[in-house]
Amino acid sequence: FGVTAEGNGPVEAIFKAIETAAQVTAELEFFQIEAVTPRADAQGQAHVRIRANDKLYTGHGLATDIVEASARAYIAALSRLDLDQPSTVVAGSAASRWS
User: Fold this and answer.
1) Are 51 and 81 in contact (CB under 8 A)?
2) Which DSSP category does 79 fall into?
3) pLDDT tens, 16-26?
4) Which contacts of 7-10 are long-range, i.e. CB under 8 A and separated by 24 or more positions?
């Protein structure tokens, strides 16, 4: 898409670039990265929760690169937003049902 963005690190920059390319704005409410497998070729999994139009949308991504996993998660959440498929989130906690 030829989009560039700056942020306080590569993950924030990629989220901003994705928002610019998708022409949407959302508020990031939750972000988590975790290792799924050990060793040098480890898989990282990212979870995000965004808020838009007073609804919550979640996404997760999996990749060997945490920036790529984060981008996949953010795109998944924005896709739910585009389809108007809000996520079920347990109130008052960081836990959610990543559906």
Assistant:
1) no
2) H
3) 999 999 999 89
4) 10/67
Q: What is the pLDDT of residue 98?
A: 41
Distance separating alpha carbons of residues 33 and 14, to the nearest angstrom: 15
CB 58 within 8 A of CB 49: yes
DSSP, collapsed to helix, strand or coil, labels residue 26 as coil
Q: How far apart are CA 18 and CA 81, in angstroms?
A: 13
Quote the pTM value: 0.84
Can you give the pLDDT at residue 96? 43
Q: What is the mean predicted confidence (pLDDT) over 47-73?
A: 95
User: CA separation (Å) from 96 to 24, 44, 71, 91?
Assistant: 23, 19, 19, 9
